[in-house]
Design a protein that fits this description.
five-stranded antiparallel sheet
Length: 143
């Protein structure tokens, strides 16, 4: 798998090669056809969110490690599915739902994954769509 990654905060993305991910459990493997560039990607690339007045939220202090693959606005084709995956078949074109919570906390249980304190979201907490492939363990939506 080819990925463009942050290897140093604020520096140009660098190409890296990895084995293609293999979907497990409920995961679906998507061959990325396009991935948007969101304003949050720019902040993550810099390594911090600037709140003004000298206040910064530094991502390394939150546990985001490098190298990291950006991209949470992902669309592509399903190329493999895990044994427990539902709702997608090989060949389907899909938008990838990136906001992945822990699945166990009260927020996730209520379907409010964006409030989860243990997020695993694609492109922001885990590697995302600036790559050939991305594996998602959450539902994926038709485009």
């Amino acid at each position: 798998m080819h990925a463009m990654q942050i290897v140093e905060w604020g520096k140009p993305l660098e190409p890296r090669e990895y084995p293609d991910p293999q979907p497990e459990g409920t995961q679906v493997l998507v061959k990325v056809e396009a991935c948007g560039v969101c304003h949050s990607d720019l902040h993550i690339h810099d390594g911090y969110f600037d709140f003004g007045n000298g206040r910064k939220l530094e991502l390394a202090k939150l546990g985001l490690t490098l190298p990291h693959t950006l991209g949470h606005e992902i669309v592509g084709e399903v190329v493999a599915v895990g044994p427990q995956a539902q709702g997608a078949r090989v060949g389907d074109k899909r938008l990838v739902y990136p906001w992945i919570g822990c699945g166990a906390c009260e927020f996730c249980q209520r379907g409010e994954e964006l409030l989860c304190q243990s997020m695993r979201s694609l492109g922001t907490r885990t590697n995302g769509g600036y790559a050939d492939h991305v594996a998602s363990s959450r539902p994926i939506l038709p485009p």
